Amino acid sequence: MNAPVRSQRPAVHDPRAKAEQVIRTVLAALGTHVTGDERVDLARALPTEAARLIASQIPATHRLTAARFVDEVASRTPGATPATARWDVSSVLSALPPIVGDGLVTRILAQLPTGYALLFGRADLTPAP
Fold it and tell me: Whole-prediction pTM value?
């Protein structure tokens, strides 16, 4: 009897594996930019694996603009373009408010440069400098 043929495709073609990779990449990047009580509260509100990703990151010495944050995620995601990275970041971050609460998201956004609200699925009503 013949053994079943296994696909030789790399895991990145598996939609579930790709989604998990994107979530890990975005949360790890976010974990470098959220500090203090907001970081602790965010980690507490997330499932264990996601909390570890947030909590294990070394805080960034300077905050990235939203556009540079997306670029950073793109550089960490194999095959990503700026457009796909923006989609990925927005997909992950806009899923956070129902999980962690709007109040915590508001506090996180207060820590970040303007422009991040759109990534979290909110209108960015802050005037640009």
Answer: 0.83
